[in-house]
């Protein structure tokens, strides 16, 4: 089977299971032929079964007693065991019990000429999949074998799907599985991003961007037409090239039959799986639909688990950051107070010496450099104390546009001097938030100063506010975006770390954004950064009411 591919990189993916799983184990599972062990002391019956099933492509082995059957399972892995009950020595029921102890995942079919309801019940209790009476016809045997292997296949797929909670690995398993189960010529998993736009997360059988674009357009149109009253329903499209809704889509004639399987999280549509067949008369049957429904339930649950895992990781990162900030804040406060006293002494002595020196002397220039450096140290200490301070916030209901305007009043003239244009996009009727007016001004001033420093040759700062939903509460969203140099991608995750700065040495302390994060956390809000090198940065704050 061809490995799934992800649009955009043009590479064929090779799936690797991590965390102790064997490399390429999933690919081996997806391509291997089913192995069947026939255990019967009557050689003629054994030969008939093997002859019939080997023509269906299965790999057959034989044993002629219960003991031989158990020993064979100890040595090799089998998907299915077909077992006679009445055999010399260990009978079939006892052998089945031992086989299930060795490998509980092996399916079993019991066959006998001496069957009764009690033996059927006994074999089912030991874990048999089904029970057949002798004499049986080959068609009946093939049907039962196919059903048993179908169950085994679903069990293996279920195990594989739930063996990982890493999204990339999971998506690869899903697309491989659905391709195998539903005998697809093409399959693609389409997800919906935060803006509501569908995209292909992973696919099989799509060669080239033109084909990807074609199939995504089909899925997008179907997404828009899914019935609201039955959004969970599987959609079947026979010969879509004859359907007026799709005839204008390029390469649509390649698809003869399409199945759309919705993906849900609760009552919310999160995406779909599209399975296509290109062969004439390869209709999707009722059996295919039932398989798809079962598979869809497994996929929805697995994707939900992966999403919960991702949220857990994000929460863990936030907790680590909060703990780091708390510890550093406590340390910074003590250090700043200890350093402040000798720094004040140095500044006082320097200024006394300056009074006695002539302005034209080298000593005067050197002392002025010392004074300048001391003032910079005091500025850093002030930032440290601000960062460490745990004062009670003066919370009151405010409209967030008011501290924004106050902050702009303070820095508007400086922005004009540096040829920076301020664009305001303030929404009217914002919900009032319970916040500290002065602390929010400090946050806005830090963000505006950073934006200014990112545009030494001028540019535009866009400030927008709008209502936002924060869980079950109302809130406001504030975005401050610039057209500056941007932040390198590998540094973006570190911008809120204390003392981290992208500015040149001597231009920044690396505490501004840390202070912003601390203040916004006190307000039960969030602050996030987005940036693209050469195109600018945007900082978004969300504060609940």
In a few lines, what is going on in this structure?
The chain has 545 residues and is of the alpha/beta class. The chain has helices spanning 25-31, 43-54, 66-75, 92-102, 117-125, 138-161, 167-181, 209-225, 286-356, 362-388, 401-417, 437-453, 512-522, and strands at residues 35-39, 59-63, 80-84, 107-112, 130-133, 186-192, 198-204, 235-238, 257-265, 268-277, 395-398, 420-426, 433-436, 459-470, 473-482, 526-532, 536-544.
What can you see in these coordinates?
This protein has 13 helices and 17 strands. It is an alpha/beta fold. It folds into 4 domains: 25-160, Response regulator (Rossmann fold), CATH 3.40.50; 164-284, 2-Layer Sandwich (Beta-Lactamase), CATH 3.30.450.40; 341-388, no CATH class; 395-544, Heat Shock Protein 90 (2-Layer Sandwich), CATH 3.30.565. It has a 5-stranded parallel sheet with strand order 2-1-3-4-5, sandwiched between helices. Strands 7-6-10-9-8 form a 5-stranded antiparallel sheet, with helices on both faces. A 5-stranded mixed sheet has the order 12-14-15-17-16, with helices on one face. Strand 16 and strand 17 form a beta hairpin. The longest helix is centred in the middle third of the chain and has 71 residues, at 286-356. It is elongated, with a radius of gyration of 35 Å.
């Amino acid at each position: 089977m061809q490995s799934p591919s992800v649009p955009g990189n043009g590479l064929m993916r090779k799936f690797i299971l991590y965390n102790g799983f064997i490399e390429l184990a999933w690919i081996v599972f997806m391509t291997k032929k089913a192995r069947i062990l026939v255990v019967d002391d009557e050689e003629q019956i054994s030969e008939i079964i093997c002859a019939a099933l080997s023509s269906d492509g299965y790999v057959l082995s034989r044993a002629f007693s219960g003991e031989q059957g158990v020993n064979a399972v100890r040595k090799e892995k089998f998907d299915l065991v077909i077992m006679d009950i009445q055999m010399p020595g260990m009978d079939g029921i006892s052998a089945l019990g031992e086989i299930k102890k060795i490998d509980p995942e092996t399916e079993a079919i019991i066959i006998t000429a001496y069957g009764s309801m009690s033996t059927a019940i006994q074999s089912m209790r030991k874990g048999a999949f089904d029970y057949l009476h002798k004499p049986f016809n080959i068609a009946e045997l093939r049907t039962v074998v196919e059903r048993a292997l179908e169950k085994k296949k679903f069990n293996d797929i279920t195990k594989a799907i739930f063996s990982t909670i890493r999204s990339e690995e999971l998506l690869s398993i899903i697309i491989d599985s659905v391709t195998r189960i539903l005998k697809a010529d093409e399959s693609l998993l389409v997800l919906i991003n935060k803006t509501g736009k569908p995209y292909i997360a992973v696919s099989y059988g799509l060669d080239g961007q033109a084909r990807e674009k074609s199939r995504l357009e089909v899925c997008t149109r179907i997404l828009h037409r899914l019935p609201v009253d039955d959004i969970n329903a599987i959609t079947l499209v026979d010969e879509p090239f004859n359907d007026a809704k799709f005839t204008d889509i390029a390469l649509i004639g390649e698809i003869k039959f399409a199945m759309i399987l919705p993906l849900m999280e609760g009552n919310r549509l999160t995406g779909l799986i599209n399975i296509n067949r290109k062969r004439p008369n390869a209709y999707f049957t009722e059996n295919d639909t039932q398989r798809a429904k079962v598979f869809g339930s497994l996929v929805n649950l697995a994707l939900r688990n992966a999403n919960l895992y991702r949220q857990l990781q994000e929460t863990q990162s936030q907790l680590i950051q909060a703990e780091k900030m708390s510890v550093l804040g406590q340390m910074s406060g003590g250090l700043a107070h200890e350093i402040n006293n000798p720094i004040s002494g140095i500044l006082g002595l320097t200024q006394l010496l300056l009074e006695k020196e002539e302005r034209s002397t080298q000593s005067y220039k050197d002392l002025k450099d010392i004074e300048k450096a001391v003032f910079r140290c005091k500025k850093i200490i002030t930032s440290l104390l601000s960062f460490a301070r745990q004062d009670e916030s003066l919370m009151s209901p405010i409209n967030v546009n008011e501290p924004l305007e106050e902050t702009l009043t303070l820095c508007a003239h400086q922005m004009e001097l540096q040829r920076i244009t301020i664009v305001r996009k303030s929404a009217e009727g914002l919900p009032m938030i319970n916040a500290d007016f002065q602390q929010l001004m400090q946050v806005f001033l830090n963000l505006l100063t950073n934006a200014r420093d990112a545009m030494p040759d001028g540019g535009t700062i866009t400030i927008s506010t709008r209502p936002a939903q924060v869980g079950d509460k109302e809130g406001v969203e504030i975005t401050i975006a610039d057209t500056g140099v941007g932040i390198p991608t590998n540094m973006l995750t570190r911008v809120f770390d204390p003392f981290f700065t992208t500015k040149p040495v001597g231009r920044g302390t690396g505490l501004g954004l840390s202070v912003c994060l601390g203040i916004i956390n006190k307000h039960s809000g969030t602050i996030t950064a987005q940036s693209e090198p050469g195109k600018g940065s945007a900082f978004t704050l969300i504060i609940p009411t």
